[in-house]
Amino acid sequence: MTPPEPLRESIRRKSRAFRLSLALGWLLLLAYALWLLHNAAPLFGVSPRPPLPEFVARTIALPPALALPGVSLAAALGALMLCLLIALLALTIAPLPAPRARPAPTARETTEPPPVALFAQPHPAEATATVASAETPPTDLIEVIAVSASLPTDTVESRATADDVAVLPAEDATRPATPAPAGDASGGVPATSARPAPARVRQGVTSKRVFISSTSLDLGAHRQRVHDDLERMYQVPVDMAQFGAGGADATTVSYTELATAEIVVLIVAWRYGFVPDGETRSVTELEYEEARRLGLPIYVYLANPATETDDGPSALFPAATRQTEYAARLAAFRARLSDSNATTYDTFTSPEDLSVRVATALARRLLRAPLPGRLAPVEARTLDRRGFRMGDDDAATFDYQIAPLQGAWGAATQALADASAGIGPKRGIVALGEANAGKTRLALEALIATLPDWSVLVWSEAARPEDVLEVAALPDERLVLFIDDLQHYAPMTQRDAESRQAVLASNRAAMLRDLLRAVAARTLVIVATCRSEDERPTHAELSWLFDKLTEVRLPEYSANAADPNARRIIAAFAARGATHLDDWDGTLGSLALGLSTKRAQYEDLATLQRPAADVLRAMKLLTAAGTYEHTERRLRAVCAGVFHDQTIAASARAWEDAYGELLRLQFARIAEDTLDDADGAITLVIRKDTYFDKVITDYPNPHDPGQVARHLAALQPVFAAQGDFDGLFSLGGMQYDLADYTRALAAYDRALALRPDHADTWVNKGVALTQAGRTAEALAAYDRALALRPDHAATWMNKGAALGQAGQTAEALAAFDRALALRPDHADTWVGKGVALRQAGRAEEALAAFDRALALRPDHAGAWNKRAYALMALQRDDEALAAIDRALALEPENADWWDSRGELLLAVGRYQQAVAAYDEALARTPGLASSQEGRARALDALEAGGDS
Known about the structure:
By secondary structure, the chain is α/β, with parallel strands linked by helices. The protein is about 50% helix and about 5% strand.
């Protein structure tokens, strides 16, 4: 077992000190031996050497006061040196003590509860490794999608040696014995040695022996993922597929290993497994029975029923691995495992999906302290305001003014008090207001005032999947989750929901769902903020979260400094020492941020062509590309590859000077979690997002409208050269939002070259191909995604949309039905099905589908628009016009809805109103072809004398 690097370094330091002590001891002993020889020389007839110097003799002479009667100096020193010699010999030849072996627990000795698993009710395996769709999760936060699969990589390695265990092939008697897995005996093949694998050591973590039980021919990859995850969690996986060859029968060895285990993970798919001679049950089922007899906690995972009929080269569980002769026994075994009276269980699909679910279930049980990482909750009263995105230190710590926000302050503190006490359905607050309105400061101050002794975890959109597992292991039972700027967790370009199909949900939103599920069992309070100008798309993406939060709206003020209310606020800030009074723009933050000062500082950097200016531009470009983690590696690569600043990329000194200047001017700060990185690399965090908008005003160049598109395109080879999968994935989504489908597809292809098994990249590629009109390729991409994750509702929904676009209406309806079987509460899927039904001429059923969508989301403008077309087909023209008007009331700037209104009015012969509607559409989207054509037809009809 290799200890982690800090432990190894500690051992090295201690061993060096130990060796030095031994050397000094032997040196003293040698000196004493020479002294004895010097004095004993006359006894052997050897003329003594010249006497030792007088000062040495005085030094070694005992003071008279310490002399013992009858004991000479030589005798006293001889006895002392003899003791030293014995001690040195013992220390030199004795090995270090071995760690005490932990006795194997028995059913009576263990303190664990009887067999249990994590989930109270089974639910479809809708999890995604890194990116989830924008589907609305169940209303209870405890049911949101499972945690991301990636786990921390700084692990203690542990592998059994040949002396530890031995293996015997168990299933096929004709197969020659090899050290590799060769059968189906619970995790592979049996071991003959009951000697436990070496225990792991890590402060704050309780290591347990976790027995992995499964068949091997169909679940080898699944089991390997679980094995690796357990090691990353500092646990000891008992997985006999990892051992060597041996000679005992499968059942005996399984029982022996189970006797040393403390937890069992049972994985069952569509293979029954090896049945020993004289038995009617497989080794896997026998292991389950033995685990129950021992009273071990059992975590059961069953392959999702949707995977049973899959076959072919891309199937998760192809028919070649199944055993038709045992089909009835397997069905009975699975039925027992899924009987809620006997055990609780979860379902899974891919190895990654299983990894997600096992890690989630075991994290809280096994880890008593966070894994080595970045997240450390602190008491609310100790929060450092300077660590939040509120500008420089003066702005972050400016004396807080409650008076202008009295109503919002009262609502926030009351809602937090209610949430902490479990009063009502809400679990926290979301502060809504325009940029610089003071959302973050209000949320922070209300939290500190109301819940000062609660643990607060500040979540960032730059979080990594392993952070979710770390949070799951936190011991804090009363936890506040602080999420600043929710708009960063949703795509901001929300065109027609049907064309977008809500699939390009961000990584951050998916991870946020994972996080809330991981902490749902705690007493949890959520504190969030969101810009009001981005509220609609953010609410559409995160409606499941908004439904659980009390909305606290900050007031808006006149930007006119002469307004009486504005004058009172400015005077109040002046009395508290504010010096940026001339910056008043109608927001409280403008009086404390000093944006004019920051703008002047940036202009100086840009005029002098300081490298720090390029670093700020690189941060702004990465943010525009959807990449919020501004690591040193990314920033230096972007400065070189996009802004052609080779100095920063080539010179560590130039880089240090650049970011040092940004720190000094307080444009950015170093992310705390990177301060102690072993390689010295850092991650920069912008002090205030507003700096990008209102300070860095020369980039992008306002006179070069194509600059952003060119620079986003230039990012692709930069990310590809760095092997930056996350950067490419996010970039593809942003280029999709810009309707640059060619470059979006190029980004997805480069991402898939790095991770060809990433299902969500295949889905997003399919969406981009659909929009590019390449329907056949889109369907192939969706099939690749479904082969990796067959029970993902959003993929079925998008496949249905592509099939409808290809005119395959029956197949499209089947795909939508498959999606709705998995997620019946997803409004966009009902909209897609309604469109397919209308294409099939089934207008009444289409209308019912749109009504189902609107029952789920009454503010779904796309559903209202499509409902209007169904009503037109039924010749219910007045209702159709009313539906169009509902869509326009929700999104008055949407040119498509005005175009639809014009089309409806043209169809019913109201040509003047149709022309007016088309004019509105063209005012919002000049050159819109359908509106130009419809307007021309309406004008022709008017010239012909028609109008009703």
